[in-house]
Amino acid sequence: MYSQAFAPEYQGALTALSVNSSLPDVLAAATEHLAEARRAGSPLETARAGLAAAEAYRRLGRTEEAERAWRDSYRAARSAGDAGAMAWALWSGGTLARQRGRLVLARRLLGLAADLAGRGGDVVARGYSLAGMAETGRIQGDYEAVRRLHEQLLAEARRRGEARHTVWALEGIAQIHRNTGDLDSAYRLFEEAAGIAARADDHRGHAWALRGLADVVSVRDGDMARALTLLREAERTCRTMDLRGALAYNHKMQGNVRYRAERFEEARASYAQALEEFRAMSEPRGEALARLGLAKSRARLGRDRTETAAELAELAGTMERIGLRHALEMVHLAQDEFGLAPAVGASGAAS
Questions:
Q1: Distance of alpha carbon 28 from the chain centroid
Q2: What are phi and psi of 121, to 5 degrees?
Q3: The CA-based dihedral angle spanning residues 275, 255, 199, 59, taken in that order and rounded to the nearest 10 degrees
Q4: pLDDT 10s digits, 100-133
Q5: From CA 197, how far away is CA 171, in angstroms rounded?
């Protein structure tokens, strides 16, 4: 049995905030409490309010402000001598680093966070930090290295009855199955995640699970209509909560679904929308993936082969620089699709 989803990053006076609170509301409450904590001379409450502000800024795509906020939170936590609060600030910083495509830095910060949380006895902060490390490895395409960690974290979350982390772990394992070609397992896990998220009132987790289901439905079943229905349902949640990153990835997936259905002009428009959104939030991984979809759509619509070849070569360099192994395979597949280069050990089209 799972408890209702909660947001452990909202701490101290902000624990009343819901996991489904809109990000502008979170930011307003965090900013107000941050000022109060500073006036009261409470470094621990300053750290807690700063953490909530950092996460709101990050999820809104305001990355420079998020960077300042997590660092300020860490300094306040260190001043308070609270290892758990320091761990949460480093977790936020590591998550931001991953979002910005700085994957080596993300691993380092998240590793430090897990160590501090362990020493401070904060089980939840340790779990979130290890989850962040697992997700970073998964995004890089290092599936074998992180599959076991995902499964370990899933077992721990199930044992504690923690819905939000269970949903996260299920979605991560599902994504690994999807990217390695086991679509039936991926569908089953995304479906379980969606069900748990719905029952636990975890709107964000539910939106991501629907995105995963839509991807599998599109690839496995060729059912564009159902896939887009799932994505539109998830899109409504993203807009309600102002989840800008999730919304951009949703639009990118709408592009994928339309591209697979050979609706190339519609796919081009979806990818272009996602690209604009990713650029607005300085999200290099999403930007590169949207550019790849856009390049493929334009090629299908008659773009000059030389221009397509040049852009795909540039994108290959970008994926390699960021450290995205699976995304690099996707570029090689695209080059092969248009007869521009041989396929290089690709395992299948990704999300």
A1: 23
A2: 75, 20
A3: 0
A4: 999 999 999 999 999 999 999 998 899 899 989 9
A5: 11
Phi, psi of 251 (to 5 degrees): -65, -35
Which pLDDT value is given to residue 8? 87
Write out pLDDT tens, residues 261-276.
Answer: 999 999 999 999 999 9
Query: Among 351, 24, 334, 34, which residue's Cα sits nearest to residue 343?
Result: 334
Please indicate, yes or no, whether the overall pTM of this predicted structure exceeds 0.85.
yes
Query: Which two structure tokens, joined as six digits, stand for 135?
Result: 């997700």
Total Cβ atoms within 10 A of residue 28:
13
CA 46 – CA 164 distance, rounded (Å)? 26
Residue among 116, 124, 179, 118 nearest 147 (CA)? 179
* Distances, alpha carbon 40 to alpha carbons 11, 84, 217, 224, 246, in Å: 17, 21, 54, 56, 36
| Separation CA 111–CA 239 (nearest Å) | 32
Q: What letter represents residue 327's amino acid?
A: A
pLDDT of residue 207 exceeding 60, the answer is yes
Q: Quick one: pLDDT at residue 308?
A: 96
DSSP 338: T
